[in-house]
Amino acid sequence: MPMPTVTELTINGQRTSVNVEPDVLLLTVLRDYLDLTGTKYGCGEGRCGACTVLIDGKPIRSCRTTTANSAGKSITTIEGLAKDGKLTPLQEAFIKADALQCAFCISGMIMSASALLDHNAHPTREDIISSMNGNVCRCGVYQRIIEAIQMASNTGSAEE
Amino acid sequence: MTDDDLTPIEPERYELHATPTYNFNLDRRDFIKAFGLGILFIVPTTRAHAQQRDQAESGRGRFGNNLPQDINAWIHIDEAGKVTVLTGKVEFGQNIRTSLTQAVADELHVPMSSIQMVMGDTELVPFDLGTFGSRTTPTMAPQLRRAAAAAREMLIAMAAEQLRLPPNDLRLVGARFVNHDKSKTLTLAEVARGRKLIKVIPENIAITPAADWTIAGTSVTKVDAVGFVTGRHRYTSDLKRDLMLYGKIVRPATFDAVLKSANTKAAEAMPGVKVVVDGNFVGVAAPDPQTAIKAANAIVVDWTSTPQPSNAELFELLRKPASDGEGRGRGGSRPQGSIANGLASADKKLESTYTVEYIAHAPLEPRAAVAEWTGDKLTVWTGTQRPFGVRGELAEAFHIPEDKIRVIVPDTGSGYGGKHTGECAIEAARLARAAGKPVKVVWTRAEEFSWAYFRPAGVIDVKSGVKDDGAITAWEFHNYNSGSAGIQIKYHTPNTDIQFHQSNSPLRQGSYRGLAATANHFARESHIDELADAVKMNPLEFRLKNIKDQRLRAVLEAATKAFGWNKTKAAKGRGFGLACGFEKGSYIATCAEVAIEPDAKDRKNSRVRIVRVTEAFECGAVVNPLQLKNQIEGAIVQAVGGAMFEAIEFANGKILNGHFADYRLPRFSDAPLVEVVLVDRKDLPSAGAGETPIVGLAPAVGNAVFNATGIRLRSLPLAPKGIPTPIGL
Questions:
Q1: Which helix (H) or strand (E) holds B73?
Q2: Residue B286, Cα to own-chain centre: how many angstroms?
Q3: A43/B365 CB distance under 8 A
């Protein structure tokens, strides 16, 4: 049985350490140890995208990533986007486009979209669909999420 | 007050009539409710609500021993002038927190920002049957409006007394009382300060007609949106309490399995782990989630299972009447005329069978609950659409009075009718009682698929006759198991026999957004298309010939106009389809365009892609056009799943595809382009809109596939694996 190990993590620019077994999922560490509950559990098998975080800028399913594999990398969660209470253009766009029903998927949607805009500042509708297809919104708000991403991409610097 | 809530509970809300999940042993204590200073306006209940509860109780004893105060709604104004509105309704993504705030702001003449809605907290809010059946907008919004309108007048009277002015010289504008020449003003806070008043709202209060709304009727984004886009909002599954443990349930090997033995030694030896074996309940609570999983896995359980049916026998099984059935179907209607005569006078006769599979709600937030005992008092946070219903279930499970139980519902990660029950709340509470510490239970996706309930499967037989001129002469319609919602026909025909028959369902089933209206509209609107084809009439003309209802005609005309029906012909490999209907006080017409696309690898098989959908919807006066459109768009996308590919596979007491890897949900790439046409009827009361927009898609798509290929699909899902590629494509 693996023993708890102190692991250093860099989350939202802050260094922190947790004492857990190395195979504990990053999702569990974020939610249950660090109280960063904006990242959600939806399926536990990487099929819904609700648990998406950025690791070194890439969208990663934290329900399929261990703590050991996250060590020493830069992790960004939904809590790390707004700075000093100022929302990013993408977060603003989700509100303006009314891309919110139950919103349980929204953290994952925003993280995935934020990674997309980092690499492709002006994605087409098809780009958005193909890169967001791993994120499920059971309320079916897809059309508005696409609008939100397009809206954010049009405001220029979508993400810092 | 209102009789709207007297709508009977549909028979297919099976979960409300089910026997309890667990039976435990007991405990008890007391609590006191308190409000701070300020003014509390209460809306007393009427006969209507007493009856509403009687109905609820007839289902089963879940609304329990201590029925609450006879109050419908509360509005409290504190010393800072902050308005708190209390309602038993809950927010599940329908954005009623927003629309109800609009209604109160409109009537009370205060900005939306000064209003806070407290929802679904049984200790604070008045009794409510539950958030389902699209009832919030038609029933709760007018109640809150009456309360707010009366509160406004009473506040003006109080302010007038304070200012020594006649009340008719004062107006309440933007949370300030102002006299005619604006020489004297008072704030809401100044009126409420130092008071501890309870004011009863009189019965007959005029509310603002829709034509004069200023805040309602406008597009307003989600009131607390910032909390959601920053991840700050705490859903039940995000809550944490001091000393909280993590719970895990050891599930039976199959449905209906009975526990033979459980060896818990290894689990109990783990540090901090509490194990509970009580009847069929086996669960653990541990200081961290991974220990909870390990402990649950370490319990060696032996279950006695019984053989159970599978998909293969499903529809045959559903045709057999329920063992405890009542013979002639419920929810249908008395036959009109004579089917035999109607068929005899027909030029063409048709007989078709339609089927629908079980599907899962799959709310993205699985069931979750945090339970905490303080002495003999129990508090449970849980995402349920029926906070008072779950309080009743907890009272029943733990043999304690309802006034010892507080259920709090944080805004929840959706439900779609799937979170009416409290099994997770009971599980968390059982573990918390044993552990003496708060316990959180969050179901896994696999648990959600297996241990919640499904939209009922169903078989529908339709027999009909039509004259060559398009007049329908006979309509016989039998729905087995799926339900009676939306079963009535709006097409004119002198001879009808419409029945719903209950069956023995092999799976646990219950409410799902729109109930059986989806299945019944699918069967009816597909069959209507078949009739139109039989007499070689355009599907739109055939419908207009047989529909007299002006509201239904209006949405049909609006949808087809926006879609371009009859204006363009579908391109090769494409098809247009139409469907319309009526349910829960609202009217809908849906047009769909599909593309038939041969598979790259196997050209004999084609995929059906929904290219675009135009839906016209009329639900009386529109409260918030933005949110209404959002609901309609979402319902259409959710409908795509049940229409195209969702189906539960089961065998011998197990779900075989209870994972997102195996159970396909609509994704970005499945979402058609959606155009919504709102028909705003300011002269009519607002009806709910959470459900009806879901019913038109499946038949419109099925009809479009027929239009494109000549292939008639009569089962939902329509084409999970595609269809044979038509010749020439």
A1: strand B71-77
A2: 34
A3: no
CA distance B605 to B609: 13
Residues B563 and B700: their CA atoms lie apart, in Å, by: 12
Q: Integer distance in angstroms from the first to the last C-alpha of chain A?
A: 42
Instruction: For the full predicted model, state whether its pTM sits above 0.90.
Output: yes
Q: Is B222 on the interface with A (CB under 8 A)?
A: yes
SS3 state of residue B9: coil
For residue B45, list its beta bridge partners.
none
CB-nearest partner of B290 from A21, A31, A100: A21
Residues whose CB falls within 8 Å of the CB of residue B653, separated by 6 or more in sequence, listed in order: B253, B254, B255, B256, B257, B305, B306, B307, B308
Neighbouring C-beta atoms of residue A125, cutoff 10 Å: 13
Q: Which two tokens stand for residue B680?
A: 């705003």
Tell me the fold of A89-154: DNA polymerase; domain 1 (1.10.150)
| pLDDT, tens digit, 9 for 90 and up, residues B303-340 | 999 999 999 999 999 999 877 655 445 556 789 999 99
How far is residue B423's CA from residue B62's CA, in Å, rounded to a whole number?
13
DSSP E strands in B567-635: the ranges are: 574-583, 586-598, 605-618
Reading the block at residue B478, the tokens are 């039998």
Residues B119-140 have pLDDT tens digits of: 999 998 888 889 988 888 998 8
Q: How many CB atoms lie within 10 A of CB B353?
A: 15
Residue B577, Cβ neighbours under 10 Å: how many? 29
Q: Quick check: A101 and B95 CB within 8 A? A: yes
Structure tokens at B8: 């009977």
Inform me whether the C-beta atom of residue B659 falls under 8 Å from chain A C-beta atoms.
yes
- Residue from the list A41, A48, A94 with its beta carbon closest to the beta carbon of B229: A94
List, in order of start, the domains of chain B with CATH numbers: 31-223 (3.30.365.10), 236-305+367-442 (3.30.365.10), 320-358+454-724 (3.30.365.10)
Distance CA B582, CA B595 (A): 27
Phi, psi of B503 (to 5 degrees): -125, 175
Q: Which residues in chain A touch residue B290, judged by CB atoms under 8 angstroms apart?
A: 20-21, 24, 28
Pairing of strands B281-286, B654-655: unpaired
pLDDT of residue B642: 98
User: For B682-711, how does the pLDDT look when each residue is reduced to its tens digit (9 = 90+)?
Assistant: 999 999 999 999 999 999 999 999 999 999
How far apart, in whole angstroms, are the C-alpha atoms of residue B229 and residue B221? 13
Closest C-alpha to A55, from A77, A23, A33: A77
- A89-154 matches A5-80 in CATH topology: no
Domains of chain A, residue spans: 5-80, 89-154
Q: Which has the higher per-residue pLDDT, B58 or A10?
A: A10
The H or E element that residue B54 is part of is: helix B47-59
B496-501 and B472-480 as β-strands: parallel, antiparallel, unpaired? parallel
Q: What is the mean pLDDT of residues B92-102?
A: 96
Question: Directed axis angle between helix B517-534 and helix B539-546, to 10°?
Answer: 110
CB contacts under 8 A, B 402-441 vs A, are 411-414, 416
Q: Looking at domain A5-80, which of 3.90.226.10, 3.90.1200.10, 3.40.50.10260, 3.10.20.30 is its CATH number?
A: 3.10.20.30
Average pLDDT over residues B659-678: 98
Q: How many CB atoms sit inside 10 A of residue A117's CB?
A: 22
